[in-house]
Amino acid sequence: MGKLTSAIAVRVLLAVLIIVALGPILWTVLSAFKELRDIVTPVPKIFFTPTLDNFATILRNPTIRDGLVNSMIVVSAAVLVGAMLGIPAAHTLARYARRWGDDVQFFVLSLRFMPPVAIALPFIVIYLDLGIYDTLFGLVLVYLITTISTVIWLAVPAFERVPRQIEEAAAMEGCGPAEIFWRFSLPIAAPSLFGALVFTFVLVWNELLLALTLAAQKATLPVVAASITSLGKEVPWGVINAATVLLVLPPLVFIGLLMGLLNSMVRSGPK
After folding, report:
1. Which residue of 37, 78, 113, 138 pairs with 132 in a disulfide if CB–CB is 3.0 to 4.6 A?
2. pLDDT tens digits for 157-196?
3. Which runs of consecutive H residues, i.e. helices, occur in the chain?
């Protein structure tokens, strides 16, 4: 009887935690399909007539549409380049530079300690001199600081968990360092690298301050969404919730595509 009661209590606790965790997300999604009068009612409405007007408003608004496109271009480019540079660097630190690898890792992580405003102010001056202020290229460059440092920091432990015996056996078979990395180390570490890339993508996708200070006309979606909330009492809550849903969709699509890619890498990994 005691075990049954404990099991029921654990299940109830898990259910409450799931509701608390997913409640705000579900409420945002529901509000995206509500009309404003159904959102601002004193008593929240569970049952309502759904509408797509909020999404239509977003897609008809060139500012929001351009912000979505800018975010997809900037974040995709920054994560792609960050992964191309950061993953091989992490493998090198894990396998060939352990003597001073910890110091390098700490230096890379220390780049994340700096508040964004400390990075933004010097970059404003530099970008104005170089003529790349308010450009997507400039945003990609500054986001590379975040993507490369995060990828290296999270990927080094993934490569350290790859059994050295596999790489040594491949070397004895005549494989070079690049071939060992591509054919053996990368597929084995792929599941852990997946989490690193997803975390990096979400981190950069939601970044606001750097985009706000380094771009005006080339605003990303978080900047556009923040500007909508400055409308005072005329806040279009339905449109904001719909924009939030659109803000979340690209990371989910990215996660799906990345999972498919990594699964194919694992299946075709070391043989």
Report:
1. 138
2. 888 888 888 888 888 888 888 888 888 888 888 877 887 8
3. 2-32, 36-39, 53-60, 62-96, 98-113, 116-130, 136-160, 164-172, 177-180, 186-205, 209-214, 221-228, 237-267
